[in-house]
Amino acid sequence: MERNNRCEEGCDRMRALVLFAAGWSAVAAAQIPQRIDPLVVTATRTEERAFDLPVAIDSIDAAQIQRNQLQVNLSESLSRVPGIVVANRWNYAQDLQVSARGFGARANFGVRGIRLYQDGIPATMPDGQGQTGSFSLVSTQRIEVLRGPFSTLYGNAAGGVISVFTEDGADPPQLQGQVVAGSYGTYNGIAKTSGVARGVGYVLAANHFVTDGYRDHSEASRDLVNAKLKFDIDADTRVTLIGNSLYQPEAQDPLGLTRAQWEANPRQADPSAELFNTRKTVNQSQGGAAIERQLGAGAELRVTGYGGQRLVRQYLALNGLLATSSGGVTDLDGDFGGIDARVTQRMQVAGGALRLTAGVAYDRQHQRRRGFVNNNGELGDLRRDEDDFLSATDGYAQVQWAPLAALSFLGGARYSDVRFNSVDHYINALNPDDSGRVAYSHLSPVVGAMWYAAPSVNVYANWGEGFETPTFIELAYRTVGTGLNFDLRPAVSRSAEAGVKAYVFNGQRVNLAAFSTTTSNEIVIDTAVGGRTTYKNASKTRRRGVEAQWEADLGYGLSGYASYTWLSAKFASDATTGLPPQPIPAGSHLPGVPQSNAFVELAWVRSDWFGFSAALEAQYAGKIYVNDRNTDAAPSYTIVNLRAGLEQGAETWTLREFVRVNNIGDRDYVGSVIVGDVNSRFFEPSAGRNYLIGVSANARF
After folding, report:
1. Which residues pair with 584 in a beta bridge?
2. Angle value at C-alpha 676, between 675 and 682, nearest 5 degrees
3. Contact 546, 566 (CB under 8 A)
4. Which pLDDT belongs to residue 29?
5. Integer Cα distance of 693 and 180 in angstroms
6. Shortest CA distance to 539 belongs to which of 588, 471, 485?
């Protein structure tokens, strides 16, 4: 058995390497006119070439996000980024499963362990819990993905930062309409207008998305609006205003399946989903403002403020009748907000350019949490009632210095003070007062260096420490007893990374990175049943990995891209899980983390053929263990997608049409897992062969 497992893992890695190598096949004799060199701001908070920074960072542009895509899920475009896993659950009640170098994989809903931003405004709640559903991909200019130690400069996160940037107002003004339709009753209607009027740039985008769902009991709809205004008050002051809203009513939750259920019929829902009518409603609105002012003598001030409200009601797969059960319906009514102010100063020190950024941030969150009995899908009696408060106060500094033409340094630190307070209102003879408070604080340093070894070769290394507190969701339940789980401690990670960024063969971009992370007090899943999850601390875990990336313009209208990630994520010491406690031997794999994944794309454009474009994509993911004890795993898979489109245009208008076929081999596979489900409903099947067609019209005035 052990020999067979080693063979399986070796074959998985071989298939992934073959996929990565396939992207290199046509490079030798190609015409390569220019190099690909994206600009990013997430790493240093100022615009820099990604090639020149001692960090692993990628930028995905609007064409990759919007062209020939549904424009609903980040999984459509971020699956190409090494080190990032974005698993489409095909379950809109639970959002995507997003992880960076293994951080965030334990989240059974929403995004955890990764900081999310839109136009510099946090899309992650102050407690560290986020969701991707509020991102308006139809108005996105680019998405930046930062991995590794420098993500800690954004606060309470461990694995990375995903920053979405809305496009600026177009000049001349534009109006766009688009319709995308496909398998399983899927439809996305899009409207967008942008322009500049009297010096004010504006963007307004809205889309209405509906689907019957691939699986039974998985219908969903989503209405999303995003707006942006940008204008100058004077020659030295610029203001950006952002507002967005998300309404997702009663998205059905088919729950996970056991292995037997998945193998018998992957499209079925678990019977308890129908019994308890499991579903989730989200209603969120958020707004923010950023003011940038030049202070003279190389100094700049930026102040960002935001606020919002989020309402959630979720029906779980249990009734919650017992007085101490907290109920089978979770009802959250929360508001949140914050402010961030920083000053950047440019100067010369010892003959080298130096840029210093220093800032402070304050975030707060209030959440009214109530729990009710789930009377087979109907709201029952109250079982939980509390007010939860959080405040986070941070100070941070970052410095970038180039003492030599061939050498630069980037470093910084962030001090975080996070305070939770819970006030219990549901008190009776059977349910005592569970009020309480807890505070966490930590100083997280990070440092990196870049050696410009040649005009087209940069070598870098970095080291840093991360700090990750529990979220309200992770504190919400105890494995035994009532009240918040204040026994949870923050996780502390120490990471090291080294890499090479190069342009070879007349402009082909190649990135290689190797990393190692050790985490103390990692927050892991203890039990998961009926949509309710409890957490505990593991003593120590270790992640080691390699990321590789290649991109090139191959000439003759051809372009190629390939990425590959190998990740070993394991418990570094013995631990326990569940009730009664079951042993987890050191060396066990962390669940929810594929051991390798790869993405390959070959695209072809012939503008003279009515704007014809086509691309072939291949995506591989290694097997994923479903629990800490590694008793079962979702098998590895490879899927292939095909897309093709046409474009016609004139001076004032552009028409585009496309067709897309996903999983053309009709592979039956599990795209994500529910970690640690005590009923063994681990598996979330992904769709077989499915189709999309779309048409858009864009008018310029």
Report:
1. 575
2. 60
3. yes
4. 32
5. 6
6. 588
Residue 259's φ and ψ, nearest 5 degrees, are -60, -40
Compute the distance between CA of residue 269 and CA of residue 71 in angstroms, rounded to an integer: 26
The number of angstroms, rounded, from the C-alpha of 510 to the middle of its chain's C-alpha atoms is 24
Looking at residue 695, its amino acid is V
Which residue type is seen at 274? E
The answer for 276, left when phi > 0, alpha when psi is -120 to 50, beta otherwise, is alpha
* pLDDT digits 0-9 by tens, 245-270: 999 999 999 999 999 999 999 999 99
pLDDT for 17 equals 45
| Cis peptide, bond prior to residue 594, ω within 30 of zero | no
Q: Nearest-CA neighbor of 577 among 541, 536, 521, 637?
A: 536
User: How far apart (Å, rounded) are the C-alpha atoms in residues 257 and 528?
Assistant: 14
- Residue 532: its pLDDT value, please? 66
Close Cβ partners of 4 (under 8 Å, ≥ 6 residues apart): none
How far does CA 472 lie from the centroid of its chain? 19
Residues in the chain: 701
SS (H, E, C) 409-441: EEEEEEEEEEEEEEEECCCCCCCCCCCEEEEEE
**Cα distance between residue 196 and residue 474, in whole Å:** 45
Angular region, 608: left φ>0, alpha ψ -120 to 50, beta rest: alpha
* Token pair listed for 253: 């939750």
Which are the contacts of 304, defined by CB distance < 8 A and separation ≥ 6?
Answer: 120, 121, 288, 289, 290, 291, 339, 340, 341
CA angle 381, 95, 371 (to 5 degrees): 15
Q: How confident is the model at residue 156 (pLDDT cuts 50, 70, 90)?
A: confident
Q: Flag whether pLDDT at 32 surpasses 70.
A: no
- Residue written as token pair 């454009």: 605
In tens, the pLDDT along 619-671 reads 999 999 999 999 999 999 999 999 999 999 988 999 999 999 999 999 999 99
Whole-angstrom distance, CA of residue 104 vs CA of residue 586? 21
Return d(Cα 374, Cα 317) in angstroms, integer. 8
Q: How far is CA 648 from CA 172, 189, 310, in A?
A: 19, 21, 42
**pTM, full prediction:** 0.92
Q: Cβ distance 219 to 194 under 8 Å?
A: no
